[in-house]
Design goal:
- The chain is of the alpha+beta class and about 180 residues long.
- It has helices at about 15-35, 40-45, 75-85, 170, and strands spanning about 45-55, 70-75, 95, 100-105, 110-130, 130-150, 155-165.
- Strand 5 and strand 6 (about 130-150) form a beta hairpin.
- It is globular.
- The N and C termini lie far apart (about 40 Å).
Length: about 180
């Protein structure tokens, strides 16, 4: 067991290399879809129903129910809320870069797996200063806890939890 309660694969146990590679690709497509503001790619990462939990954080990200407790949504409703709250226009005014790494993948029951991955999210914004617009570079760090399941022949996310461990509180509440 690791510190997060996930079992690490024992020597000789089926490592499921092809599944691991597809799950890692799923996590990276999710992160890239946010950075490129690609809603279609984002939606393709999720199962028909998605549990979303942002409640283990010092700030409220969306103003919605996932900020307070785990909430389950149909995919289309989840995408409508989550995509708008997690992306910014990839422009010179504001952009983000979700760097998701060190994925620990643990296969659970049947065609399900959990992923624990670190998030570093540097973002750049132009903010109004005393002399006019100035660049402001900020950083958010945390852990993604992701449940995945096989849907047909593809892996999809069925639950997404984010636990932030470092952030700039002024930025997270929209102040420079």
């Amino acid at each position: 067991m690791n510190p997060y309660g996930q079992r690490i694969t024992a020597p000789g146990e089926d490592f499921r290399v092809a599944d691991r590679l597809e799950i890692m690709d799923l996590v990276w497509r999710f992160a890239t879809s946010l950075d490129l503001a690609d809603r279609e790619m984002f939606e393709s990462c999720f199962a028909d129903r998605v549990r979303w939990d942002l409640s283990n954080n010092p700030v409220r990200f969306t103003g919605g129910p996932a900020d307070l407790a785990e909430t389950e949504f149909p995919r289309s409703e989840f995408v409508g809320i989550a995509f708008a709250s997690m992306t910014r226009s990839p422009s010179r005014e504001y952009f983000v870069q979700h760097c998701v790494n060190n994925p620990l993948i643990t296969f659970t029951a049947g065609e399900k797996a959990t992923v624990l991955a670190h998030l570093r999210n540097p973002f750049h914004a132009k903010v109004e200063g005393v002399e006019g617009a100035v660049a402001s570079d900020r950083m958010l760090g945390g852990l993604y806890h992701i449940d995945t399941q096989q849907v047909g022949d593809r892996w999809r996310m069925s639950a997404l939890r984010l636990s932030v461990y470092s952030y700039d509180p002024k930025t997270m509440v929209g102040r420079s």
